[in-house]
Amino acid sequence: MITGCKARDRRAQREVYDRYSPTMLAVARRYTQRDADAEDVLVSAFFKAFDKIDTFTESGSFEGWIRRIVVNEALMLLRKKHALKQAAELTEVNPANYSIPARAADRLAEADILKLLDSMPVGYRTVFNLYVIEGYKHREIAEQLGISINTSKSQLILAKKRMREQLEQLGYTAPNH
Amino acid sequence: MAEFDPFDQAFRRRANSLRRTPSPRAWNRVENRLDRRRGGTTILGIRPWMIAALLLIVAGVTVVSEMNTRANNPLAKRAESVEELSSPYTPDETFTPVEYYKAIPDGKAGRILIVRGSEYRDLTVAPQYRQQS
To answer: Contacts for B32-35 with beta carbons within 8 Å, 24 or more apart?
Structure first.
């Protein structure tokens, strides 16, 4: 399939698209609140992936490679919309105060995952996505978003605080946990 | 913050299982962008094939105008009649071959043939057919 894509074979490109687009659209949707924006990100990402397919080295995971392109495209869209400008920084925070029980996440319905993420400000959501789901380090997030490492950490704590509140509202955790 | 958080792991697992089906239009948009890209690079916004097409048109116009200016060029002349080849040739009754000889005056033996008829002015006798003096 990848060899076909490198040969600019349209059928191979379609196969790759059919296989990975549902996952990648969900990735894009976690960063953007609107479905239309997520689809724009998906289109740009797949175009870039097929256009730059020669830069993909077979040693790595192809899905991981496309996923990074999707995340970068999503961040570009947010930057273009100036959605990442607002950033709050906390000084003295104990992350333990905002911890969320893991069993709450285990029981989460798919629709509620997007509802939780959509309820957060863009800055919180972006840092939460990059740190918790993509596995980026705070240093990498700071570089990607053009913010300080402390801001990245603060955004994550605030995101988790907001998420805990939302989970309580949705009935996933007891308020006095 | 680098500490292991069981919630993070559980949330990641759930989030990574999300799937969303894109609209059919999304693939068409990817394909359109790929097709535009396949058109190749541009020089000041003009594609190389456009330049080639323009040169071809200019060359074509030049050739046609050149042909029209050459009045004597048989390629530029339109056929005035079409000879019927299927019917057998029957000479006209009024045909007198003598008229054809009038335009070519007889030369004198041992001299170069000089033709004064306007139709044959440009004709010369090939060297091998000339009489050697």
So the answer is: B33/A43, B33/A47, B34/A10, B34/A13, B34/A47, B34/A50, B34/A51
